[in-house]
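Cross-check.
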Amino acid sequence: MAQTAVPLVDHVILRVPVRQRVLSLPFPLRLVLAAQPKLVTPV
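Predicted model, tokenized:
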């Protein structure tokens, strides 16, 4: 796995701007989305 990731990290990711975002949802909504995973895509 690590050998596969090395070319991606060295050649692909360095050329593309990357941002990491975290989506935080209220706890009751998390429970609904956990029970019905098909709803995650529209959210």
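Helices lie at 2-12, 27-35. The mean pLDDT is 82. Passed to J.P. for a second look.
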